[in-house]
Amino acid sequence: MHPESIKPSMTPQEAWEKLSAGNFRFVNDDTQHPNQDSARREKLISGQEPFAVIFGCSDSRLAAEIIFDVGLGDMFVVRTAGHVLDPASLGSLEFAVDILNVPLIVILGHNSCGAVTSAIKVKESGNMPKGFVRDLVEHITPSVQAAERKGITDVNGTVVEHVKQTTDRLVDLSSIIALAIEEGRTAVAGVSYHLHDGRAQLVSSLGLD
């Protein structure tokens, strides 16, 4: 049962517009660095009410709070290499949506992604990596295959397809998140980040206007 005691601070569309505005400031070197002072720390002691949850790649160049120009308590962030879904990340996303009542999930990929590049190379060579990196590659390979079926073979095009596939897979795997989207309590935005100019491009969405 969804907790009625916590009301969303904004609609999914408003949340996306807030993130878009922050990214626009970042791209144009006009960042405000909001909610990063002692007053904000004090306010957050009693609890958190983030307006977005970011499920992004772990790449060090993809610092979510920076590229969207937000601060403490604004975003609930979950990251894995290649934004690969696993039980822990799914549980974290469900917690954000069903307990914290976050109105927007952002799937955040980026061009020149090392994890996606590895998956493409493995498919071409057949040489699997060692350890748990193999698990990452195995999870990304279906997106590589989906991209190839559309005639896409380059890394950056495959990244966009992987973001789209992750968006769809998230809803397929989580009935909790699927229900929240159906009820209009949350939405999913698939985003591809451009390393060269800092732009966060919307490439897919579920539940946004």
UniProtKB/TrEMBL annotation:
It is an enzyme of class 4 (lyase). Its EC number is 4.2.1.1. Belongs to the beta-class carbonic anhydrase family. InterPro entries: Carbonic_anhydrase (IPR001765), Carbonic_anhydrase_CS (IPR015892), Carbonic_anhydrase_sf (IPR036874). It catalyses: hydrogencarbonate + H(+) = CO2 + H2O. PANTHER family: CARBONIC ANHYDRASE (PTHR11002), CARBONIC ANHYDRASE 2 (PTHR11002:SF79). Keywords: Lyase, Zinc. It comes from the Bacteria. This is Carbonic anhydrase. Reversible hydration of carbon dioxide.
